[in-house]
């Protein structure tokens, strides 16, 4: 190569190197400016949040963004109000509308979604120590802004002057031990930032001159985009540190709001890791959560409803057979997850059916008196004096056969009933008896039509047919059924029709052991499969070991028809952590004696520190028992409320009601006030099918009553 050529080559090589240096220099300058702006704005957020440190909060600044080598999380706040993953944005000209956020003309929603994704992954990580998903929050702080309280999907967007208040106002949801457990996990999950940002070219490390002063705002916004939009005058920090964002009285006010926030119960924010996992688990179709009494099924169902409402578009329905229970559950969710309570609908199964029929203009008329008269007329015409009119069964038995076994399944043809396995009904019916039952059903149906009325089973059948005729589009994104064992086959079908087999659409929560209505069926009959999508909870949080032991004796040999098919024995909890005094069983000489002792017992338990009238439940298997107890308590000056009227709003009155109404509820002290001693002592071997069936249901009902008790149980028999 000629000498001139080699010189030219070297010159161009040097020029190329110089260009590479210039590019690297430009990159490094841009990075430096990002750090500069970020530190200024983040410092302001940190300063705004600093007062939390005095109230048991931990502020983790500049931690690693899990899963990324380069990115950092500005701030993670861990404390009594939960976990807050905070990202500060020096954005100007921000508009938020319809779940999207814009900077000027640019849609920057995706930038917040990265934060949402991090919060979601953090939720999963912290579920492993039991933190409920609703306690992890993604918060985007707009630097230099005030009075902002918006949502972009799961991300809360607030001004830097608002962020302290937004966090503190949630109050104390976690206790110190729980905060410690969550903090320990967070310290691992959000690693320390130790290494400098990686150098992106293979150029020698530049030797930097010693800094001459603090870094001020540079040309670019933290994310490298248009600086003019990002610079907000208030953000500029003075050379000697950021000015305080909030006055002392504003800080004081924010912290006070937190102190005044209604306290939550432990399970509202902190669960057993197994529970927390089920709350977030994704099921590829209908799922079932089961477990013995008191294992937190309702708790998990509620958290799951909140979780699904938070993570999906559309509404979630929480429903039960018992009309009054949804009101109680709504009250609980209002405290558990106030952010989503307006996206969760609570309604009994019948109320839901009625809404559908009303909305779709389907006429139906329910009239209790007419229904009763239709039944009486049908019985008189077909069944009175027939092979089913014996002294073995009350008419109620046949009424239940028609309402639950036949209509509960939506049977309309004799052939469907002729050889139907009547799950859970021990008394076998001969062909002749079945025929008469069917004729009774036909007659009853005619009588109803003649009167122009429908009964409650018709209401469900009509709604189910209507939903099948025109499937609802997006009415509910998910349906959670609590106490699912109480629903009939048609009710399950109706609920299934809302969501079909969509992932996480239908969640059935229940315990077959607590089945107290006849008409057992399998989910296969309802066209629902939960195969491979079942979870069993097995820690009893409610009862003391003593209470559970006592109650469990009643159902030790019980077998029931489980909705997944086959005969089942009850789930037994693996753990019962609480202990307490032995239940009290008293034999009374007469009804009057029982009433007298009941009043004494109520006075005795409310004399204990920490127990009020409102913590006491007086439960009876019959309405008559409820009336008698109510009268006796009122006479003794004890304030009472009937469970039919109880909606979960705390009230300092003794709650009196039937066991059916107490489903899903609990009380510190339970008094069971109408059993006969013979119920507890009769031997299965001495009973025929009819009496055995009666006994099974009765004992299960007593079991439900007794397992409502948290601390104390008193059972009075004659
Ligand atoms: N992780 C938990 N920590 C503390 N308490 C809990 C937890 N989970 C549930 N509990 C409490 O245990 C009790 C029973 O919970 P829940 O009512 O959800 O049980 P369940 O399985 O639905 O009961 P049942 O079937 O008998 O109605 C409630 O007082 C609830 O607050």
TrEMBL record:
<dbReference type="Pfam" id="PF00580">
    <property type="entry name" value="UvrD-helicase"/>
</dbReference>
<dbReference type="InterPro" id="IPR011528">
    <property type="entry name" value="NERD"/>
</dbReference>
<keyword id="KW-0378">Hydrolase</keyword>
<dbReference type="InterPro" id="IPR000212">
    <property type="entry name" value="DNA_helicase_UvrD/REP"/>
</dbReference>
<dbReference type="InterPro" id="IPR013986">
    <property type="entry name" value="DExx_box_DNA_helicase_dom_sf"/>
</dbReference>
<dbReference type="GO" id="GO:0004386">
    <property type="term" value="F:helicase activity"/>
</dbReference>
<feature type="domain" description="UvrD-like helicase ATP-binding">
    <location>
        <begin position="270"/>
        <end position="544"/>
    </location>
</feature>
<keyword id="KW-0067">ATP-binding</keyword>
<keyword id="KW-0347">Helicase</keyword>
<feature type="domain" description="NERD">
    <location>
        <begin position="37"/>
        <end position="149"/>
    </location>
</feature>
<feature type="region of interest" description="Disordered">
    <location>
        <begin position="217"/>
        <end position="245"/>
    </location>
</feature>
<dbReference type="InterPro" id="IPR014016">
    <property type="entry name" value="UvrD-like_ATP-bd"/>
</dbReference>
<keyword id="KW-0413">Isomerase</keyword>
<dbReference type="InterPro" id="IPR014017">
    <property type="entry name" value="DNA_helicase_UvrD-like_C"/>
</dbReference>
<protein>
    <recommendedName>
        <fullName>DNA 3'-5' helicase</fullName>
        <ecNumber>5.6.2.4</ecNumber>
    </recommendedName>
</protein>
<comment type="similarity">
    <text>Belongs to the helicase family. UvrD subfamily.</text>
</comment>
<keyword id="KW-0547">Nucleotide-binding</keyword>
<dbReference type="Pfam" id="PF13361">
    <property type="entry name" value="UvrD_C"/>
</dbReference>
<dbReference type="Pfam" id="PF08378">
    <property type="entry name" value="NERD"/>
</dbReference>
<dbReference type="InterPro" id="IPR027417">
    <property type="entry name" value="P-loop_NTPase"/>
</dbReference>
<feature type="binding site">
    <location>
        <begin position="291"/>
        <end position="298"/>
    </location>
    <ligand>
        <name>ATP</name>
    </ligand>
</feature>
């Amino acid at each position: 190569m000629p000498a001139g050529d080699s010189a030219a080559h070297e010159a161009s090589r040097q020029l190329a190197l110089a260009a590479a240096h210039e590019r690297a220099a430009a990159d490094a300058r841009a990075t430096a400016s990002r750090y500069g702006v970020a530190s200024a704005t983040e410092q302001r957020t940190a300063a705004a949040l600093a007062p939390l440190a005095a109230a048991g909060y931990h502020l983790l600044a500049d931690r690693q963004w899990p899963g990324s080598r380069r990115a950092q999380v500005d701030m993670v706040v861990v404390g009594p109000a939960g976990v807050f993953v905070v990202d500060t944005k020096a954005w100007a000209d921000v508009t938020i509308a319809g779940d999207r956020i814009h900077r000027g003309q640019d849609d920057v929603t995706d930038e917040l979604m990265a934060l949402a994704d991090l919060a979601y992954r953090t939720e999963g990580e912290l579920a492993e120590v039991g933190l409920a998903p609703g306690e992890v929050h993604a918060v985007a702080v707009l630097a230099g802004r005030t009075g902002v309280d918006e949502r972009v999907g799961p991300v809360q967007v607030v001004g830097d002057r608002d962020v302290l208040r937004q966090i503190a106002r949630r109050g104390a949801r976690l206790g110190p031990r729980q905060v410690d457990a969550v903090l320990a996990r967070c310290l691992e999950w959000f690693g320390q930032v130790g290494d400098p940002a990686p150098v992106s070219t293979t150029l020698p490390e530049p030797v930097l001159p010693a800094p001459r002063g603090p870094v001020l705002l540079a040309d670019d916004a933290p994310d490298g985009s248009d600086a003019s939009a990002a610079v907000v005058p208030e953000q500029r920090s003075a050379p000697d540190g950021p000015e305080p964002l909030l006055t002392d009285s504003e800080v004081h006010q924010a912290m006070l709001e937190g102190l005044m926030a209604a306290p939550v119960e432990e399970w509202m924010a902190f669960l057993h890791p197994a529970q927390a996992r089920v709350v977030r688990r994704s099921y590829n179709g209908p799922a079932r959560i089961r477990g013995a009494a008191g294992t937190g099924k309702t708790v998990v169902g509620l958290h799951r409803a909140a979780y699904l409402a938070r993570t999906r578009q559309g509404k979630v329905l929480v429903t039960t057979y018992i009309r009054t229970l949804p009101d109680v559950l709504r009250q609980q969710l209002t405290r558990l997850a106030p952010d989503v309570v307006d996206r969760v609908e609570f309604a009994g199964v019948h109320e839901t059916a009625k809404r559908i029929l009303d909305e779709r203009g389907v006429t139906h008329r329910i009239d209790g008196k007419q229904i009763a008269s239709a039944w009486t007329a049908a019985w008189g015409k077909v069944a009175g004096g027939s092979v089913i009119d014996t002294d073995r069964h009350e008419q109620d038995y046949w009424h239940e056969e028609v309402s639950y076994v036949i209509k509960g399944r939506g049977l309309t043809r004799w052939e469907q009933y002729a050889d139907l396995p009547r799950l859970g009904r021990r008394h076998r019916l001969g062909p002749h008896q079945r025929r008469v039952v069917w004729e009774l059903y036909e007659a009853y149906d005619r009588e109803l039509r003649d009167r122009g009325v429908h009964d409650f089973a018709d209401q469900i059948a009509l709604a189910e047919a209507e939903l099948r005729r025109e499937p609802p589009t997006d009415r509910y994104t998910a349906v959670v059924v609590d106490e699912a064992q109480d629903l009939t086959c048609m009710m399950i079908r109706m609920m299934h029709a809302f969501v079909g087999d969509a992932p996480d659409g239908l969640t059935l929560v229940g315990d077959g052991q607590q089945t107290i209505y006849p008409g057992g069926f399998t989910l296969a009959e309802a066209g629902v499969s939960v195969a491979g999508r079942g979870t069993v909870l097995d820690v009893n949080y409610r009862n003391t070991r003593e209470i559970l032991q006592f109650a469990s004796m009643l159902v030790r040999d019980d077998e029931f028809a489980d909705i997944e098919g086959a005969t089942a024995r009850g789930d037994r909890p693996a753990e019962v952590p609480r202990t307490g005094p032995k239940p009290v069983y008293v034999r009374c000489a007469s009804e009057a004696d029982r009433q007298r002792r009941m009043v004494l017992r109520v006075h005795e338990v409310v004399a204990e520190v920490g127990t009020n009238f409102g913590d006491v439940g007086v439960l009876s298997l019959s309405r008559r028992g409820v009336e008698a107890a109510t009268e006796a308590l009122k006479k003794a000056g004890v304030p009472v409320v009937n469970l039919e009227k109880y909606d979960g709003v705390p009230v300092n009155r003794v709650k009196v009601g039937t066991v059916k109404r107490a489903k899903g509820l609990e009380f510190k002290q339970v008094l069971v006030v109408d059993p006969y001693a013979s119920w507890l002592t009769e031997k299965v071997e001495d009973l025929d099918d009819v009496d055995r069936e009666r006994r099974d249901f009765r004992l299960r009902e007593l079991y439900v009553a007794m397992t409502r008790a948290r601390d104390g149980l008193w059972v009075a028999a004659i």
